[in-house]
Amino acid sequence: MPDAARFVLLPGQLYDGDGALPRPGRAVIVEEGRILAVTSAEAAPAGLPRLRVPIAAPGFIDLQINGGDGVMFNDAPEPETLARIARAARRGGTAHLLPTFVTAPGRAYAAAMDAVRAALRARLPGILGLHLEGPFLSPRRPGIHPPAAIRPIAPEDVAVLERGIGGPLLLTLAPEEVPPGTIARLAAAGLRVFAGHSEATLEEVASAADEGLRGGTHLYNAMSQLTGRGPGLVGALLGDDRLFAGLIADGIHVHGQSLALALRCKGARRLCLVTDAMATLAAPDAAFTINGKRIAQRGGRLADAEGRLAGAHLAMDEAVRNMIGMGGATRAEALRMASTTPAAALGLGHELGRVAPGYRASLTLLDDDLEVLGVVVDGATFLKDID
Q1: Tens of pLDDT along 49-69?
Q2: Domains in the chain: how many in total?
Q3: Which residues form the signal peptide (predicted)?
Q4: Domain check: are 193 and 239 in the same one?
Q5: Hey, which of 78, 162, 209, 334 would disulfide with 189, CB 3.0 to 4.6 Å?
Q6: Which residue positions form the known binding site for substrate?
Q7: How many angstroms separate the CA atoms of 308 and 64, rounded?
Q8: In terms of domains, do 210 and 359 share one?
Q9: CATH number of the domain enclosing 42
């Protein structure tokens, strides 16, 4: 394992985030956390540490992950929690993530913002920004979120959010529940606004997109559905090429045929694979509570006692394989949905999501069966058993 500021990665096949086919026989030269060059293997400079793997791809980016390694971000919004979640996520090939803080009373989300600010200042490996999922949701689509904590957005909330965190800040809200102009103001402050837990109509989504709405959270789930007379949020996300959409490819939240339909409608350049992972990531026997309800994992399904889904027991490499096996994606499409497209959704396509000179040296390393061998995060290597 290279432990150097400069090393050479030699993948048998390189998916660079740009082409439909892998590029064989390439060398990726990494220097000081950046990709210095991509050359032929024969032209790689001698004398540098070398790492050989079957497959390399742009580092996976998870826009929605709530916990891992037995802990939940909501329970302890602190940098130590983030470090554990990032470590668990690396086992599934995730190089960068947005820890997700879900609906909680009042302005509890401010503590999550503080924790991520501290993690970014400390350059905690893998922590890219923050996803706030709520509390500005539709009371008609709470999902597992505590209904009593769902509320309208207030001017004071907008002021807190506008301060930012020093990195990407993704906010999931119900567009029909916020006053006109709110999304435009948040977008102007640099937030990436997604629709989710929403009863929005097609017209309401279109209006929100005009203001700067960027996409939708966990397509098909906790949102107004596609019908013959009303396309709802599902139809709006599938039909509007301006919008990205997160997709939980676990075969539980979304049927395989629906995965394939989403890919056919939107293509790999607008779909982002997400895990929506909970404390059971890398700790399958862990149990946890949400809204006072005990959640446990049984047969890959996370649910409360009433059977209501509560996130996913899913890693990113599994999502990639499922998108291929269930959704009919090619390898290049599925890998793009885990890396290049999430980078674009966050406005970071100029520095992440490709293996090219000048980009951050963040890559996911895989075997021929797309099982994770390790990750490179801004030039730091983490190989299995991943640290």
Answers
A1: 999 999 999 999 999 999 999
A2: 2
A3: none
A4: yes
A5: 162
A6: 144, 221-222, 229, 253, 309-311
A7: 19
A8: no
A9: 2.30.40.10
**CB proximity list for 119: less than 8 A, separation 6 or greater:** 79, 82, 83, 127
CA distance 296 to 228: 37
Clarify whether residues 42 and 88 are in a common domain.
no
Q: In sequence order, what E strands does 215-274 have? A: 215-216, 244-247, 271-273
Query: Which residues are known binding-site members for Zn(2+)?
Result: 133, 197, 218
- Residue 86 contacts residue 122 (beta carbons within 8 Å): no
DSSP for 128-165 reads: --EEEE-SS--TT--TTS-GGG-----HHHHHHHHT--
- 18, 21, 78, 326 from 264: Cα distances, Å: 19, 19, 40, 13
Q: % helix / strand / coil in the chain, to the nearest 5?
A: 25, 30, 45
Lowest mean pLDDT among 137-141, 229-233, 301-305: 301-305
- Terminal-to-terminal C-alpha distance of the chain: 12
1 within some domain: no
Please identify which residue in the block is written with the tokens 């309208």. 152
Q: Which of 157, 250, 276, 317 is catalytic?
A: 276
To the query of whether residue 369 is one of the catalytic residues in this protein, the response is no
Q: Is 38 helix (H, G, I), strand (E, B) or coil?
A: strand
Q: What is the pLDDT of residue 329?
A: 98
Domain span including residue 40: 6-58+354-383
